[in-house]
Amino acid sequence: MGQLVHRDVHINVGEYYFGSGNVRVRTLLGTCIAITLWHPVRRIGGMCHFLLPTRNNRRATGLPQSGLYADDALELFADSLEQAGTPAHEYSVKVAGGGNMFPGQMTAAECRAGICVEERRRLCTSIGCVNIRSARKLLEAHGFKPPTEHVGGPGSRTVILDLSSGHVWIKRGAAMQLQ
Fold first, then answer.
1. How do strand 16-20 and strand 7-10 relate by DSSP bridges?
2. Domain count of the chain?
3. Are 31 and 126 spatial neighbours (Cβ–Cβ below 8 Å)?
4. What global pTM score does this model have?
């Protein structure tokens, strides 16, 4: 019996993918967030890679949705779920990213030391922490189950979602040092 051949789809900042089959969706994150969804019965799912929590003025200006923003990315997922005829609560949800790429610049001693604690994250104004809070809030508002998370802390992450199995792999990278 031959090996299962996967097609790799790489998504960049602001991109989004939803589908099925022997596909592995991958991305590289710093302060950005990747959200993966997978339906264990239908074996469909996807990933978004957002940069910022919101573009507050999109609806006022009539601009199209952009996966650069968390609120738009969740709307893209909602549209895909509606097209698939599946409710949000049936999906396995994982959130990754929100890393601190320059820990030496953080004001809190824990953050400079690379220790990312939830109590500090609730008040933190770094873009990684703001993105984490935004992802949680929007997922809850859209009716998704609480996600499994690999968020915060120093450094980058590579995230891979296998749509044939629902497996998600996360590889941690290093934080950058200012010289």
1. unpaired
2. 1
3. yes
4. 0.87
